Amino acid sequence: MAGVRIYYFIIVYFFILQTKPVFAAFENVAFRKTADQSSYYPSWIQSASYAVDGDTTQSTCMFTNVNQPYTWWEVDLGKEYFIHQVVIYFRTNWKWRRNGIQVYTSVSPQQINTGQSCGEQITGNMDGSDIADVTSRTCDVIGRYVTLYTDTVNKGTCNLCDGGKAMDFCEVFVMGNVLPVCRNCPQPDIETQKC
């Protein structure tokens, strides 16, 4: 009878392992890494690193200045990672700055709209009202730098909402993991991270 119980335990344990969500293998590799941005909003605490401090509430957010020809924010992960997904936690009160953001990855600092694009541009109404507070883009690439970029003019529904090209968000998670041992692998298996 003990053998049957052990066999049953092994079967149940194996089933649990097989149904574990794939994303559980990834971690936020941007946490407390070095970040920079194109400009800072006057009279606001100037810290691009607010977007990688781990705080997804509205208490620490980054802001670029308004009415710029383009604007960017970039995090240096410190080394190359397999980047599965980028998750953006937007401010909930200035939704119009969400529209038109594009996510890029690269192995060298870009700070512009080049590099490997991660999914589609974040688009919606000009006032951003139809873009979720938490938005993600899938990358599935190798990179060291993640850049958020926009040159889209947006306008909100209030008199103070016109800021042209600007970005603000409270947190960016870069979900990834260390590269597999076989570095020359064109793209590792997402579940096992093996070639």
Would you kindly provide a written description of the structure presented here, covering whatever features stand out?
This protein is mainly β and 195 residues long. The chain has one domain: Sandwich (Jelly Rolls), CATH 2.60.120.260. Strands 1, 2, 3, 4, 5, 6, 7 and 8 form an eight-stranded antiparallel beta sheet that branches. The N and C termini lie far apart (42 Å).
Poorly predicted sequence stretches spanning 5 or more consecutive residues: 3-24
* Count of helix runs: 1
* End-to-end distance: 42 Å
Main beta sheet strand tally, sense and closure: 8 strands, antiparallel
CATH class categorisation? Mainly Beta
Rough shape? Answer: globular
Tally of extended strands?
Answer: 8
Q: How would you classify the helix and strand content by structural class?
A: mainly beta
Q: What Rg, in angstroms, do the CA atoms define?
A: 20 Å
> What helical percentage do the residues reach?
under 10%
> Strand portion, in percent?
25-35%
Under CATH, the homologous superfamily reads Galactose-binding domain-like
> What is the mean pLDDT?
81
